[in-house]
Predict the 3D structure of the following.
Amino acid sequence: MSVETIQFEFVDTNILVYAFDNSAGKKRDAARALVETLWQEQRGALSVQVLQEFYVTLTRKLPQPLRPEQARPLIADFATWKIYSPTAEDVLAAIDVQQAHGVSFWDAMILQGAQALGCTQVWSEDLAHGEMYAGVQVLNPFAG
């Protein structure tokens, strides 16, 4: 399968965190299943922002945080996914998304990243499930 025919799916930080948070219960199971499917089908997409937030959360905010040397290989693995590296123009576009949809700037950067990579959906718990933002549909793996 060529890269051009793959429909990538963008994953927000919170989904990755749940997949590695042993205290997250059913959310961990659902997030882990989604991440594993995206790995197997080679359809995962992220942004540099997600990688940064994921690292900080894993090493500082979990009930049982990982040591940096434990978190680094996870970041390296996810860095093999399709990655969005924002430009100054993307920041301006995210401001427009923020204004048009009334979302936080950081959520607008996630949506802009998904759109820039050609993703039509983003997996997130932070935005309204099923809602369309700038041509990208948000899906919450924990909804219903």
Q: What stands out?
A: The longest strand covers residues 44-47. The CA atoms of residues 52 and 110 lie 13 Å apart. The mean pLDDT is 94. Strands lie at 9-11, 44-47, 82-84, 121-123, 132-133, 136-139.
